[in-house]
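Before relying on records like the one below, remember that each one covers exactly one chain. Contacts with other chains, cofactors or solvent are not represented anywhere in the record.
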Amino acid sequence: MTVAATAQIISAKKLPPDVLRAAGGSIYAPRGAARRLFYDRSPEIIIDGPAGTGKTRAILEKVHLVAERWPGSRCLIARKTRASLTQSGLVTFQKHVLPPSSDVRFHTQNQQFQYPNGSVVAVGGLDKDSKVMSSEYDIIAVIEATELVEADWEALSTRLRNGVVPFQQIIGDCNPASPSHWIRRRAACGHLVMHKSTHRDNPVLFDAGSGTWTERGRDYLAKLEALSGLRRDRLYKGLWVSAEGIIYAAFDREKHVIDRFAVPSDWPRIWSVDFGYNNPFVWQCWAKSPDGDLYLEHEIYRTGRLVEDHARDIERIANGLPKPLDVFCDHDAEDRATLERHLGVTTTAAYKGVRPGIEAVQARLRVKQNGKAGLYFFRDALAAADPELADRKLPTSTVEEIEGYVWDQKRPDVPVKCNDHGCDAMRYAVAGVDDLARRNAPAEIADFNLLEL
């Protein structure tokens, strides 16, 4: 069956076929939520579910089908940042959706795929939205829609007015997030339709013919099942839940994670470091505003590398930035000496009082009367995602840790020591800037059981 024939079935509002054939004969067989997506013409759609269910593939296949079926149509593939789109959605589109023999060509200057029939599939990030928001589209596909704020989603929706395709539609994929996320609120109000995908929807993981998991499926699900806490609930079970006993309950991605701006050169920089090899090594560069607010400007979050290797990356990233006012480090003497030798900086042993440090971070996350918080994270602060951590579905940045950073249920005053390396480095920075070592010296001696040993 050709793409045109398939699209005619869909446009006639009949159930989609079991197999869609893309140009060149490659086969894509939508199942479950992906199959429902192909005949749903709702203006706003989210396909959600646990990790690895084929959500991104489904929305990109629909984009490709629309571009093939309606000559002259305009589609957009978008993500919150252009860099993250390159690392994720575009790889899937080019490697799995577009057949090798396709005549579709990518035009670098225009940042769009040009189809022989005149259709266009543009790509863009909302961190560089001038081009994205200046065009009109028939279909917009958003990768990882939970990264957007509701205003982003609504702004994109205003660009759905190209009028070539008989239905104008914005679709997004995502893993579950907080139950109070705007996507859930928007669905509850009837503004968007949600389709729940499962691991059985992905033919790579599940063989529908035999009703059994493939070898790859068993291995992949074992990785997800081994996760703990919030990440297991969301990425394995597909639940929209918040962590029980979450420590930084005031953290809100819509408020605290912001687009980069040009940080003035006279703002002091503070570095914080949590050493690790098997566990992540974390380096954070914070900019301190005249009001005393901290902005995470740059971050390294990587496993399997030596301190001297990280030092070279820090030197490259920090080139052109002011020298750090302070460098607050984990207490490993050898690693500190290595860092000092390679970077020519003096480090300070970080204040290790856990509870006072957490309370200081909590205070900075609260929004003040002036509408501002005392702690922010640049959306693109991370230098590069660690591929091994990403493959294991573990946090790849401090922001990804925060929602799963929880109190130990058996020891209510102590956080769970798991996936907390960025949170530790953040606490070192805040404790150093707020001078907790001096302010809490008596409490530290009296309450030594709350110190990290």
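Residues 3 and 300 are 44 Å apart (CA to CA).
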